[in-house]
Specification:
Elements: E1 40-44, E2 47-50, E3 55-58, H1 61-64, H2 73-85, H3 97-108, E4 116-120, H4 123-140, E5 148-152, H5 161-166, H6 170-173, E6 185-188, H7 193-196, H8 203-221, E7 226-232, E8 234-235, E9 242-243, H9 248-258, E10 262-267, H10 280-284, E11 292-295, H11 297-300, E12 307-311, H12 313-320, H13 336-351, H14 354-374, E13 384-390, E14 393-398, H15 415-425, E15 428-429, E16 431-434, E17 445-449, H16 457-477
Parallel strand pairs: 3-15, 5-6, 5-7, 7-10, 10-11
Antiparallel strand pairs: 1-2, 2-3, 4-12, 8-9, 11-12, 13-14, 14-17, 16-17
The structure holds pyridoxal-5'-phosphate.
The site of pyridoxal-5'-phosphate has 16 residues, from helix 4.
GO molecular function: pyridoxal phosphate binding; transaminase activity
Protein name: RING-type domain-containing protein
InterPro entries: Aminotrans_3, PyrdxlP-dep_Trfase, PyrdxlP-dep_Trfase_major, PyrdxlP-dep_Trfase_small
Length: 480
């Protein structure tokens, strides 16, 4: 067992968190976690080794990032070669080969959906870039009254001040609510049928209700003031791998089109193959391509801090006819090393046909998880609200409102965190989130599993087994 986990991730509010006091142990990092995370020293494929020799199976690729595993020889080679060529140029002075080639691959591989690409150094930066670019587009095309964004409750678009304001995750924004811009960022309901579709509604009725709500919000704000509607194609780090009901994106786009606003998709987590197709909207967006899109996590695959903004013909033409440039930049934008890494990751996905493997192994994983957790003999079955997802992205949502929960002290809503802690101590990395089940974000637990696209069936079997063991062990521990 890892000594660094004496203060367990699942009990962040216990007195053992004192071990995580700044300076109380050998760390000078102000960590994000109430416990001190163990230190990784080496990695291969989906395995990561710690300082103490413990080997972990990373079933979630960090945060749905490491899509081709660690230490892939082709990616390592490309990065080493790029270091020897040109590790850095500043994009206000020079461009570089891997950046040019990566942008070409991203736009030319989009079947006409995107014409131009701009780089960032991560997901939040990409979403900041999207916000500014969308405004720049209207500023330069003479629609200066457009200043409002409409996004959704229970969403996540990043951790910078503007992306926190754009999104709506109650806990993550709480400390900053007083300084967030509420004048230009507005919110409508999430599209989460299993929790929010009413019992007397059909799927079509539900979609129509959400469409009408968006249109009402446009009218309330003044349709000529709306820049665009922003959504994660498949919601990641809030409700946990939730796809919209059928017809939703078509309906939302119809409202945007009616009033000349933009449809903006955040595929930072769900894009670049995570759902089994390059873009999540290809399989979960009614085939509707966005005007603007942010990508990041699977773009660099963990080898590089990189994100990108993808621009449709509409945006590209508007800007070409006006200033012809992106009035936005960062020092590390289009960094040669990051772009070389990302380019190599994308080539590996293509050359090794990894999207097909991801879909195939993902379907197998989903089947195993359902058998293990929802099967007739599963002690966890009464507490499994939903097992969902596709490609390499799966959410397991729990329910402790059921009558069976009366004999467990799990009312606190930290089950997913307890499972995450137990799994980590027993060699499996997964993610847990709270607050998936109501708009206040005070109820609900979900675990996320998102292995590398080149995961093998033997590894998938191990993931399902280890995950099932963790869920059951936490239940056993909390039976009263
Ligand atoms: C992770 C994430 C972001 C933020 O990306 P960072 O690289 O952490 O800044 C934005 N949007 C979505 C949907 C994400 O999942």
């Amino acid at each position: 067992m890892a000594p660094a986990l004496v203060s367990t991730p699942g009990e962040p509010f216990s007195s053992s968190r004192d071990t995580g006091k700044v300076g109380s142990r050998a760390t000078s990092i102000l960590h994000r976690t109430p416990w001190i995370p163990p230190v990784a020293v080496s990695a291969q494929g989906i395995y990561i080794e710690l300082e103490n020799g413990q080997k972990l199976l990373d079933a979630v690729g960090g945060a749905a990032v490491a899509c081709v595993g660690m230490n892939h020889p082709a990616v390592n080679k490309a990065m080493k070669e790029q270091i020897d060529r040109v590790p850095y140029v500043y994009n206000m002075q020079l461009s570089n080969q891997p950046a040019e080639e990566l942008a070409k691959l991203l736009t030319e591989g989009s079947n006409g959906a995107f014409e131009l690409c701009g780089f960032a150094s991560g997901g939040s930066e990409a979403m900041e870039g999207v916000i500014k670019l969308a405004r720049q587009y209207f500023h330069e095309t003479g629609q200066v009254k457009r200043t409002n964004f409409i996004a959704r409750q229970l969403s996540f678009h990043g951790n910078t001040v503007s992306t926190l304001a754009l999104a709506y995750h109650p806990a993550r924004r709480a400390p900053y609510a007083a300084i967030l811009d509420n004048d230009h960022f507005h919110h409508v309901s999430p599209a989460y049928a299993k929790r929010f579709q009413r019992p007397d509604e059909s799927e079509e009725d539900y979609v129509e209700r959400l469409r009408a709500e968006l249109e009402a919000k446009f009218i309330e704000l003044g349709p000529e003031t709306v820049i665009g509607f922003v959504a994660e194609t498949v919601v990641g780090a809030t409700t946990g791998v939730v796809a919209a009901p059928k017809g939703y994106f078509k309906a939302m786009k119809s409202v945007c089109d009616k009033y000349g606003a933009l449809l903006i998709l955040d595929e930072v987590m769900s894009g670049m193959g995570r759902m089994g197709t390059l873009h999540a909207w290809e399989s979960f967006g009614d085939g509707i391509a966005p005007d603007l899109q942010a990508i990041a996590k699977g773009l660099g695959g963990g080898y590089a801090s990189i994100g990108a903004v993808l621009m449709s013909k509409r945006i590209a033409n508007g800007l070409r006819d006006a200033s012809g440039l992106w009035k936005h930049g960062h020092t590390y934008q289009g960094n040669p090393l990051a772009c070389a890494a990302s380019l190599a990751v994308q080539k590996v996905i293509k050359d090794e046909n990894l999207l097909e493997n991801c879909r195939k192994q993902g379907a197998y994983l989903k089947k195993l998880l359902k058998e293990r957790l929802q099967g007739p003999n599963s002690p966890a079955a009464p507490f499994i609200f939903d097992i969902r997802g596709a490609g390499g992205f799966f959410g397991i949502e729990y329910d402790f409102d059921c009558p069976e929960a009366a004999t467990f002290d799990l009312k606190g809503g930290h089950f997913a965190m307890l499972v995450q802690a137990h799994a980590l101590e027993h060699g499996l990395i997964i993610m847990g989130f709270n607050g998936s089940a109501n708009l206040e974000g005070t109820k609900g637990d979900v675990s996320i599993i998102a292995p590398a696209y080149n995961v093998t069936s033997a590894e998938v079997e191990r993931i399902a087994e280890m995950f099932g063991n963790s869920v059951e062990a936490v239940l056993t521990k909390h039976r009263v």
